[in-house]
Amino acid sequence: MDANSGGRQGILPTFTRAQVRFVLAVVGAYFAAQGIYMAVAPGSFFEYVGPFGPQNDHYIRDNASFSVALGLGCLVGLVRPRWQVPALAIVTAQFWLHALSHLVDIGEADPAYYGPVEFALLVVGAVVLTGTFVLASRLSGEE
Description:
Mean pLDDT: 88
Strand content: under 5%
Order of helices and strands: HHHHH
Largest sheet: none
Number of strands: 0
Low-confidence stretches: 1-8
Shape: globular
Number of domains: 1
Helix content: over 70%
């Protein structure tokens, strides 16, 4: 222990690793649950979550497969630490690209307030994921 660190040097990495694992668990569960919901009830998903453009159950189910795969990748990161940074990089990119898509179609949602609200939530999620990705990248460099 460094005399100037007061013992904090060992605590901080443990705390931040727990944060990374927490975000991976939440995001992994979110994507997996969303994908299952999309696959099982595409009409309900369209009505309550993604009311943009015309409904197409086939495309909703196609996107469900991507969502479940992203979720599983994050969840694998909980038991295989080497997966954490790549999984976070992929879901962070997905959130930013998804936010951009919502920005482009911000006026197409029905009801109209869904567009700006979903865009804002996606940006908040993307910022949190970006921070977690940076943190995980730094932590992986310490090992």
